[in-house]
Write a structure and sequence with these properties.
Elements (H helix, E strand, L loop, with lengths): L9 H11 L5 E2 L42 H10 L9 H14 L3 H14 L9 H14 L2 H9 L5 H13 L6 H12 L7 H15 L3 H7 L3 H4 L1 E3 L9 E4 L4 H12 L9
Antiparallel strand pairs: 1-3, 2-3
Helix pairs in contact: 3-4, 3-5, 4-5, 6-7, 6-8, 7-10, 8-9
């Protein structure tokens, strides 16, 4: 985690990284952006171990570290020694926001992305959509389309975010593989509807032939220029004010998936 006096506030750190590196985001910070960082761990603040019989309430997720009670800070610091364990949403959110900030340091981004992926293996994190978005941001900052599509093929993205993730993969010139198609099928139509991989592969080949081009590229081409423009990114750290392209391919891909699913399973509209 980032510590006051050792690391710069998030807005200042972001400005520095964008000045030093050609990162694929637009800086939305302005003169009103905070010169402080509400999430930095401040060693000067009191930390008190709760009494054995004391029931410490979970902190409000809107608070920063300074807004925690001394007992809440103790519980946070203990949990940070093993963040794979279940915790209050505020603790998970604070930790994710720290990792999200560190993604903007190219020299650290590989290790941070690995840490984020490792968190996703824990039951307490697996369904955390903010974690999924942080991983997506990490792959975009690295412009690692191959890593992004392999991660998506593993089926670790929420249905409402998958369309945007596929749009970002298309911008990185990634093709729709049978494994990724199977994952999309499971996410949007339900795992019980996914046919065997040979059938998925055959349907993908047939679709590509019919379209005359790669399906993700085709879906991206259906969007307007405005839909491909950078939009404000919804991250966890409120001082990381950035924009990046977030084209959502679900509207374009859903009818194609319906066609591929015809005769295979339930034809419920996506």
């Amino acid at each position: 985690v980032r510590v006051a006096g050792k690391q710069a506030p998030a807005a200042q750190f972001l400005n520095c990284m964008l000045a030093q590196h050609n990162l694929p985001v637009v800086n939305r910070a302005n003169e009103l952006s905070s010169a402080d960082d509400y999430l930095l761990i401040d060693p000067s603040l009191a930390v008190i171990e709760p009494a054995v019989s004391e029931n410490v309430a979970a902190p409000d997720p809107r608070l920063g570290y300074a807004g925690y009670s001394a007992q809440q800070r103790f519980e946070l610091l203990v949990w940070l020694m093993n963040p794979m364990e279940p915790a209050a949403p505020a603790f998970q959110q604070l930790y994710l926001a720290h990792l999200e900030t560190c993604l903007f340091e190219p020299n650290d981004s590989d290790d941070v992305l690995l840490a984020l992926r490792h968190l996703q293996t824990a039951a307490s994190w697996r369904a955390n959509e903010s974690l999924q978005r942080a991983i997506l941001l990490g792959y975009w900052l690295k412009q690692d389309g191959d890593g992004l599509t392999k991660w998506l093929a593993a089926g670790q993205m929420h249905a409402r975010t998958l369309g945007v993730a596929l749009g970002m993969a298309a911008l990185l010139a990634q093709p729709l593989s049978p494994e990724l198609l199977s994952s999309i099928w499971s996410c949007w139509r339900g795992p019980e509807t996914v046919p065997p991989m040979p059938v998925v592969t055959q349907r993908l080949l047939s679709l590509t032939t019919t379209l005359g081009e790669e399906p993700l590229a085709h879906a991206l081409a259906q969007l307007t220029d405005e839909e491909r423009q950078p939009k404000p990114w919804r991250g966890l750290h409120r001082d990381l004010r950035i924009a990046l392209p977030q084209p959502d391919l679900r509207t374009a891909l859903a009818p194609l998936l319906d066609e591929m699913a015809a005769g295979v399973g339930n034809m419920d509209v996506l």
